[in-house]
Structure formats: structure tokens, C-alpha cells
């Protein structure tokens, strides 16, 4: 069911994040910008999540990715990439709507919320521990406070916090869980029929 | 709009990259180069800043030390802070603090020399145009210290919900004669501290010192913050364990830039603070207008004229400049057009008129730029004049001027520049690098053309300045702005000419009034040729004594207007007299007036009135009263809001996972590892 594996994908993603931050002096063409994406700069849909406003922003998101990426990848590398893709689409979709009203967005934290729910789900299916439920509740509570107060809890980065990207990330995570449970159900039915 | 963004972003980035490659000069004690005079020491340097009610009060207290065997004179020089009204200068004589008085510049210098000759204690603060404030103190006795304090006031601007305060220390190094004549001693030998106390009725989300991450930032409430930056010696004495730096702030060669970010979604608003001693006395007010975000984005293309400083002071920076231009040009839309002008002793066009922004053209002209080497003087007028030629009246034009210096060849008078700009329909956007460029000239030029001037410090946050420039240039602006009052008699409004308001910019108007009562305020302007009006009604107080500093701020703004007139019309004895009168009445150091400190009995002997001492005492009392009373809400349009939309913000965002989430993840990780190992 699970395989013990070195999280190469997580290492690779971390290298991309750090490399983009330190090797690209002008990250403006990489930020997520709805207007520019519509005008044809489609790469921003993806790159916007991988560039960061300042070292502190990068540090926290790298630590989050290191933990969550490793957790998921130890279960399944495909799950990591699937969650990453769904997170990017989910957060990107929100940012493309007029609701966001942002000119620029950057950072992986929205997508990390997708990874968070995915990791929690995988751990839950594996252990059925109530600790997972407690952590999920704490995570939801954090996002609710951030959205209602418009602040970023305990973190100060040079760009204003945009907590709705975390909500979009969580929705992405719920989508991953729903899809995974559908696949499992289907595979168990197939197994039963066989 | 994308093109516009990228050009501005590239140029602003260029300014900063260029600044980084420039050798730093600093504030410090000056000694003539090559002289046998021994150097004095800066033993202590303490900066206390209070930002509240729309203005900042900065007090700089210093101790100079003479470790040598003879009495010496201390001359300390530092860059002129933006819009700073120097109103208090104190010198400790025989352990007593003695406050200075303002006299005409020549008279003050004469008295200083006279006192110095007589061996009596004296000190003098003078302004060297837009470049520096120079403080002379005599004597610094052999083996002893002297203590001085300088206080200045400046309005605080918030742009797109981001406030910015700069304590300038870095000299731009454009005054080569001065730099070659003097050597600078900028090290603080013992205690350095920078403390900032911030109070506002608007909630603040965050504070940031981009070049001083070691600063200790303390949030007392949503709207009250304290910042502290100290070296080890000062930290030990204050019992602090955080925020102390052993060496970073020891040298006075780096600006301290502080940003604060207002909470999102605050309304556009009108605030007012006033000072009126009694019902029959004249009142002074400062009205700060923070417009709502109601200016639409610009969508049509433009013609771009890059006017680039190619003088000797750009040596070592020019390659960075070319890279910045390259970056900007490669982002242009094919239907955009560009010209490139270089200027040093004279100006010449690199392009052959407007060129379409094709990749081939861009590559070609970048190669041409690379074949040039900066040298000689700065004929800014010639560059600007050439840039103004051949503009297409049917297309929207924007002139981008990037310079780090001063006009020193050809036409150098401000009026010549202003006349040139008035005769052409083009917006000029100036990117002013460092503290020593001729900011008054560049700002006036930008204003007259309905553009804007942007000052960039070496310590500025790149992303912040980029967003500020982009936000302004990608939206329509309110042009030909005028302010009128009815219901209450107001006069002496300043600025005399407001010009344009770009997205996110605040409007600060100062003036006098005689009787309290309800006034209706109208702000009129034009957006894309269509008239727009904003109005509100509020009360002018009959008596209010909490903000006496407003009088100095009005005085400073009035002098700026008078100086502009003087620059425009040339030498005029009446205007010069008016500047001196306003400066003396309000106790301000200007190009025409200086502040002198003498032994207390000498003021009387020389017949110098102690007006400024009374003013300073009054201001100190008001400051104490304000501290006791706590935070005030100065918004006056609450009952009838002038704007219906919230104020502008940069509209960018991000989110960090943060320590809170990591705390939650740690048990998950531990749980995972334990169950995994068991399995």
C-alpha cells in the first residue's frame, strides 16, 4: 500500500523554489497576474506559486513544503504531483476571478494548503488517529481567523497577506480527497467483482 | 498596461541596481582633506522619531568628543531630509540646554565667527541648498565632549496604504568639490540608537525596515507601534537583549527606511489637524486627503522617450543602466514606439526618431548604447530639450528621465526647465537616485508636466518602489487639481499649485483661518478631460492647541512656494525678503536663514529675541500633552464622506505557511514517523 522512498520530488521542488528566489533578480515577469495571464503570459499561472516576496516568505513555505512533500511522497509520489496540480489550479482559478482584485500574487502557501489536506487524508487512511482530526481542525481554524481578520498569523512578509488563497488551497485539498476516495471505491469495487 | 508596468519596473530596478554599484558617502564630521587638524569623534548618535497626526518629528542628539590636546571646531554634515523643517537646535553649554534662534544666513555666520574669535561657546546650523545641513560647533574643548540636538518636522505621506519614513544618512556624492575638500568621519564610537514611536487612528498591519531586519519592532496595539535599532553599547545600557547590532548601524553611511502598511480596505478620508491659540488669533491647519480608489486603469499604448544621464558621475553605473533599458524595451508591445536620448556635456539621440519596438530594433539600439562610455558634465537641459522634440501630438507621450546628479552645464536655472516643460504636452516622470540629486528641480519639473518624481534610496525596498511606480502609471490621474473652502475664511493655502494626483497619492494642504465654524471643502480636477468634484463639510475648531508644529509646517510649505516663484522669475528682493520673514517668524533653517546658539546672556547683549525658545517650549509642552491624551481620530469627513470607495492599496498579496502551521505539522510528522517505524 505504501512504499518507503526518498522524496526526490520534494527535494526537486525545494531546489526550484530556492533557485528561483536567489537566481532570478527580477521576479516580476513570474508573479501571478490575472491581467497578464489573460494577455498571453500563461506561465505566470504556474510560476506565480513558485516565487516568493522575501526570504522569510520563502523560508516558511520551504519548511512547509519539506514536511508535507515528504509525508505525501512517502505514501505516493503520484499523489504529491496530483495534489500540487490540483492546488495550482484551485488557487489560480480563484486569483483569475474578479473576486480576488489582486494585481500580483506570489508564494506557495495557497497550494500548501492543498498538500496539507492531502497529507492529512493519507495519514488518516493509514492510521485512523484522532490526532489527524485535531490537526485538521487547527488548520481550518487558522484559515478562518486569517480570512475574518485579514491578517497572517504570526508571520510578517513584505506583501500583504491574502488569506483567501489558503481557502482556495483547502478547497483543492478537499477535491483531492474526494477524487482519491472515488478512485479507492472504484478500485475496491473492481476488486470485489473480480 | 503590461508594457508600461515592465518599463517602469525595469527602470526603478535599474535605479536601485545603479545605486548599489555607487560608492557610498556618509553623514559625518568633516575635516579638511590633507590638513594637519586632528579628527574629532562622534561618541553618541541618538535618533528619536515620533510619527502621529500626519507628521513626523525627528530629534537627533549627538555627542562629539575631542580626544586631542587642543580645542577644536566640529563641523557635522548630513543630507537634507525630504521636506524637513528644521526648527530646533540645542547646544548644551555649561550643562544647560540652550535653544537656537533663526537669523539671516550672513548675519548668523557673522555672529558665529565673532563668538568663535572671542572663544565663547557657539553653534550654527546652515543649509547648503538641497544638498546638506551643516552644523558647526565651537569649541570642542581638549579632552572634552559637547552635546547638541537638532529637531526637524516633516509631513508623512502614505502612498497606496504604505507609509514611508526615511532617516537619510547616505550622501549621493555628486558634489565633487565638497567631497574632495573634506574627509568624513562617520563612525559612531560608542552609543547609537534609533527609536521610532508611531501612533495612528488607522490600524496598521505591519512595519518593515528592509535594510535593517535586526530592528526590534513592538506592536502595542493595532495603531501604536514602537521600533528600535541600537548598537551593543546602547542596548546594554537600556537593558535590551533584542535588536542590538554590533556594527551594522555603527557607521552613518546607510539611510534608515521604515515602511508601515495600513490595514486593507480602509476608506478614502479627509483628516485635519489645526493650531489656534485663542478665539481671536489666527489659526493654522493641515488637511490630509487620502483619495478613494476610483481612477480607472489605462489601456491605450504610448510613445516612450528615455532620457538617460550619461555624465561622468554615471561611470560604473552605465552598464546597469543599459541592462535596465534593455529589459524595458524588450517588453514593449510592437505598436509602442521609443526614442533614446543620452546627455552629458550635450545631448544626442541614439535612435533615428521614434522606432517601433521590434526585437531587431531593440537589439540594435542596445548595441549602440553599449558602445558609449559616460564622461563629462551634466547638461540636463539639452537632454530634456531634445527629448521634447518630435513628439507626436496624436499619441500619448511619456518621458522617463533617469539621473543621479545635478544640472551643471548649459541652462541650469529652474525657470528655464519649467518654461521648456510648459511649452510641451508631455508627462515627465523622473527617477531620482540618492540623496544629493537636485530634487527640488526634478520635482518641480515633474509637477509642471503633470508627472511625478520618485526618490529612490539605496535602503528602499525594491518591490515596494516598483509597485508604487506601477500603480501610479497604470491608472488615470486627477489633473489640474484645485481645493476651495467656503463657510470659513481661509487664506495662504499651500501648495499654491497642486498639479496632479496619481493613484494612491495623498494631498496635503496647509493654510490659515481666522474663525472656527463649519466649512465646505471642494476638490476639483479632471480625469481624461472630464471634470470631477469631491466635497465634504466639517468643522474648523475655534481654539485648539495640541499641534503648534503645524505653524512650522505651513511656514516650510510657504517657503517652498516662494522658492519656486523665485526660481521661476529669477532674483527678486521682495520674494527673498518674504522667505526670510516667514523663516524667522516660524523659526526655520533655509537657504536664506540659519539657526545660531549662543551663551544665554549673549542673546540679550546682541539684541536677539528669544522667539524660537518660546516656540520650542510650547511645542515640547504640546508633545507631552499629546502623549498623555493618547491616539486621536483626526478624520473630519466621517459624517459626510468625501469618497465612496476605499483607499488604494497595491493590490498584491501572498501568504506564508508560517510558524503556526509548522507547529501543527510537527506532531503530524512525529506521528507519521512513529507509525511508519512500527509498520
Your description of this structure?
Chain A has 194 residues and is an all-alpha fold. The two termini of chain A are 19 Å apart. Chain A has one domain (8-193): Rhomboid-like (Rhomboid-like fold). Helices cover 70% and strands 2% of the residues of chain A. By secondary structure, chain B is an alpha+beta fold. Chain B has 3 domains: 25-253, Immunoglobulin-like (Sandwich), CATH 2.60.40; 267-297 and 477-570 and 629-674; 300-473, von Willebrand factor, type A domain (Rossmann fold, 3-Layer(aba) Sandwich), CATH 3.40.50. In chain B, the strands form 7 sheets. In chain B, strands 3, 4, 6, 7, 11, 16, 18, 19 and 20 form a 9-stranded mixed β-sheet that branches. In chain B, strands 8-37-9-10-5-2-15 form a 7-stranded antiparallel β-sheet. Mean pLDDT of chain B is 83; it is low at 14-24. Strand 1 (104-106) of chain A pairs parallel with strand 38 of chain B.
The SSE order of chain A reads HHHHHEHHH
Estimated share of beta-strand residues of chain A: under 5%
Determine the mean pLDDT of chain B. 83
Structural domain tally of chain A: 1
Quaternary structure classification: heterodimer
Task: Estimate the helix proportion of chain B, in percent.
Answer: 25-40%
Please specify the SSE layout and strand pairing.
The complex is a heterodimer of chains A (194) and B (679).
Chain A: H1 8-23, H2 34-38, H3 44-47, H4 55-75, H5 77-96, E1 104-106, H6 109-127, H7 130-149, H8 164-193
Helix pairs in contact in A: 1-4, 4-5, 4-6, 5-6, 5-8, 6-7, 6-8, 7-8
Chain B: H1 2-20, E1 25-26, E2 28-32, E3 41-52, E4 55-65, E5 72-79, E6 85-93, E7 96-99, E8 101-104, H2 105-117, E9 122-128, E10 132-140, E11 145-155, E12 158-159, E13 162-167, E14 170-171, H3 176-181, E15 182-185, E16 188-199, E17 204-208, E18 216-221, E19 224-231, H4 232-238, E20 244-245, E21 256-262, E22 269-275, E23 283-290, E24 303-309, H5 318-330, E25 337-343, E26 347-349, E27 355-356, H6 359-370, H7 380-388, E28 397-403, H8 414-422, E29 427-433, H9 439-448, E30 452-456, H10 462-473, E31 478-486, E32 490-494, E33 499-501, E34 507-513, E35 517-527, E36 530-540, H11 549-569, H12 573-586, E37 593-598, H13 600-605, H14 611-629, E38 652-654, H15 658-678
Parallel strand pairs in B: 3-16, 19-20, 24-25, 24-28, 28-29, 29-30
Antiparallel strand pairs in B: 1-14, 2-5, 2-15, 3-4, 4-11, 5-10, 6-7, 6-11, 8-37, 9-10, 9-37, 12-13, 13-21, 16-19, 17-21, 18-19, 22-23, 23-34, 25-26, 25-27, 31-33, 31-35, 32-34, 35-36
Helix pairs in contact in B: 1-5, 1-10, 5-6, 7-8, 8-9, 8-11, 11-12
Amino acid at each position: 500500500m505504501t512504499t518507503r522512498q526518498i522524496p526526490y520530488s520534494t527535494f526537486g521542488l525545494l531546489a526550484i523554489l530556492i533557485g528561483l528566489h536567489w537566481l532570478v533578480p527580477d521576479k516580476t515577469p513570474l508573479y501571478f497576474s490575472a491581467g497578464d495571464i489573460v494577455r498571453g503570459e500563461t506561465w505566470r499561472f504556474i510560476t506565480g506559486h513558485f516565487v516568493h516576496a522575501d526570504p522569510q516568505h520563502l523560508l516558511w513555505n520551504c519548511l512547509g513544503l519539506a514536511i508535507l512533500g515528504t509525508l505525501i511522497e512517502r505514501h505516493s509520489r503520484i499523489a504529491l504531483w496530483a495534489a500540487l496540480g490540483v492546488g495550482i489550479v484551485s488557487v489560480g482559478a480563484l486569483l483569475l476571478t474578479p473576486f480576488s482584485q489582486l494585481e500580483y500574487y506570489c508564494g506557495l502557501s495557497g497550494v500548501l494548503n492543498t498538500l496539507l489536506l492531502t497529507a492529512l487524508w493519507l495519514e488518516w487512511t493509514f492510521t485512523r488517529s484522532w490526532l489527524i482530526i485535531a490537526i485538521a481542525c487547527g488548520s481550518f481554524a487558522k484559515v478562518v481567523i486569517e480570512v475574518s481578520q485579514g491578517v497572517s498569523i504570526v508571520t510578517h512578509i513584505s506583501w500583504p497577506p491574502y488569506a483567501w488563497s489558503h481557502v482556495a488551497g483547502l478547497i483543492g485539498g478537499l477535491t483531492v480527497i474526494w477524487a482519491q476516495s472515488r478512485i479507492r471505491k472504484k478500485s475496491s469495487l473492481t476488486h470485489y467483482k473480480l | 498596461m503590461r508594457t508600461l508596468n515592465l518599463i517602469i519596473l525595469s527602470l526603478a530596478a535599474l535605479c536601485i541596481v545603479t545605486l548599489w554599484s555607487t560608492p557610498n558617502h556618509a553623514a559625518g564630521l568633516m575635516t579638511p582633506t590633507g590638513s594637519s587638524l586632528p579628527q574629532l569623534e562622534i561618541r553618541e548618535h541618538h535618533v528619536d522619531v515620533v510619527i502621529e497626526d500626519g507628521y513626523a518629528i525627528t530629534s537627533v542628539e549627538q555627542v562629539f568628543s575631542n580626544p586631542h590636546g587642543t580645542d577644536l571646531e566640529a563641523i557635522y554634515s548630513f543630507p537634507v531630509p525630504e521636506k524637513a523643517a528644521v526648527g530646533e537646535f540645542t547646544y548644551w553649554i555649561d550643562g544647560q540646554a540652550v535653544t537656537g534662534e533663526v537669523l539671516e544666513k550672513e548675519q548668523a555666520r557673522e555672529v558665529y565667527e565673532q563668538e568663535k574669535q572671542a572663544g565663547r561657546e557657539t553653534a550654527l546650523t546652515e543649509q547648503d541648498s538641497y544638498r546638506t545641513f551643516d552644523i558647526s560647533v565651537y569649541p570642542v574643548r581638549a579632552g572634552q565632549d559637547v552635546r547638541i540636538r537638532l529637531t526637524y518636522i516633516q509631513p508623512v505621506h502614505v502612498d497606496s496604504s504604505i507609509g514611508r519614513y526615511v532617516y537619510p544618512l547616505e550622501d549621493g556624492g555628486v558634489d565633487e568639490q565638497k567631497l574632495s575638500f573634506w574627509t568624513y568621519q562617520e563612525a559612531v564610537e560608542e552609543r547609537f540608537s534609533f527609536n521610532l514611536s508611531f501612533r495612528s487612528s488607522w490600524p496598521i498591519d505591519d512595519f518593515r525596515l528592509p535594510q535593517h531586519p535586526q530592528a526590534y519592532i513592538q506592536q502595542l496595539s493595532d495603531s501604536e507601534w514602537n521600533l528600535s535599532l541600537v548598537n551593543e553599547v546602547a542596548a546594554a545600557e537600556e537593558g535590551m537583549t533584542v535588536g542590538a547590532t554590533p556594527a551594522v548601524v555603527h557607521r552613518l553611511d546607510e539611510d534608515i527606511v521604515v515602511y508601515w502598511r495600513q490595514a486593507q480596505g480602509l476608506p478614502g478620508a479627509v483628516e485635519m489637524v489645526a493650531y489656534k491659540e485663542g478665539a481671536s488669533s489666527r489659526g493654522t491647519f493641515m488637511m490630509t486627503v487620502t483619495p478613494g480608489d476610483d481612477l480607472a486603469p489605462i489601456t491605450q499604448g504610448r510613445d516612450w522617450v528615455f532620457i538617460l544621464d550619461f555624465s561622468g558621475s554615471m561611470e560604473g553605473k552605465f552598464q546597469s543602466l543599459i541592462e535596465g533599458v534593455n529589459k524595458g524595451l524588450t517588453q514593449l508591445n510592437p505598436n509602442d514606439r521609443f526614442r533614446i536620448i543620452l546627455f552629458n556635456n550635450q545631448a544626442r539621440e541614439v535612435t533615428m526618431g521614434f522606432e517601433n519596438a521590434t526585437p531587431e530594433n531593440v537589439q540594435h539600439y542596445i548595441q549602440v548604447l553599449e558602445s558609449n562610455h559616460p564622461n563629462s558634465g551634466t547638461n540636463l537641459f539639452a537632454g530634456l530639450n531634445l527629448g521634447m522634440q518630435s513628439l507626436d501630438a496624436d499619441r500619448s507621450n511619456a518621458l522617463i528621465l533617469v539621473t543621479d546628479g545635478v544640472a551643471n552645464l548649459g541652462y541650469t536655472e529652474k525657470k528655464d526647465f519649467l518654461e521648456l516643460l510648459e511649452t510641451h504636452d508631455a508627462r515627465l516622470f523622473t527617477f531620482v537616485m540618492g540623496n544629493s540629486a537636485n530634487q527640488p528641480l526634478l520635482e518641480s519639473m515633474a509637477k509642471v508636466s503633470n508627472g511625478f518624481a520618485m526618490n529612490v534610496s539605496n535602503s528602499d525596498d525594491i518591490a515596494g518602489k516598483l509597485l508604487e511606480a506601477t500603480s501610479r502609471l497604470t491608472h488615470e490621474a486627477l489633473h489640474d487639481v484645485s481645493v476651495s473652502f467656503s463657510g470659513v475664511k481661509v487664506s495662504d493655502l499651500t501648495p499654491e499649485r497642486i498639479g496632479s494626483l496619481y493613484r494612491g497619492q495623498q494631498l496635503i494642504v496647509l493654510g490659515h483661518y481666522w474663525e472656527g465654524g463649519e466649512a465646505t471643502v471642494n476638490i476639483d480636477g479632471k480625469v481624461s478631460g472630464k471634470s470631477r468634484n469631491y466635497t465634504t463639510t466639517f468643522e474648523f475648531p475655534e481654539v485648539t492647541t495640541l499641534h503648534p508644529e503645524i505653524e512650522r509646517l505651513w511656514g516650510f510649505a510657504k517657503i517652498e512656494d516662494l522658492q519656486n516663484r523665485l526660481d521661476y522669475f529669477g532674483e527678486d528682493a521682495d520674494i527673498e525678503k518674504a522667505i526670510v520673514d516667514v523663516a524667522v517668524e516660524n523659526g526655520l533653517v533655509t537657504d536664506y536663514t540659519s539657526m545660531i546658539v549662543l551663551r544665554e546672556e549673549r542673546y540679550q547683549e546682541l539684541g536677539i529675541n528669544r522667539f524660537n525658545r518660546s516656540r520650542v517650549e510650547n511645542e515640547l509642552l504640546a508633545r507631552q500633552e499629546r502623549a498623555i491624551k493618547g491616539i486621536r481620530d483626526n478624520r473630519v469627513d466621517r459624517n459626510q464622506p468625501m469618497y465612496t470607495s476605499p483607499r488604494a492599496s497595491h493590490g498584491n498579496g501572498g501568504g506564508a505557511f508560517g510558524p503556526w502551521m509548522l507547529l501543527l505539522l510537527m506532531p503530524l510528522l512525529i506521528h507519521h514517523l512513529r507509525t511508519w517505524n512500527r509498520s
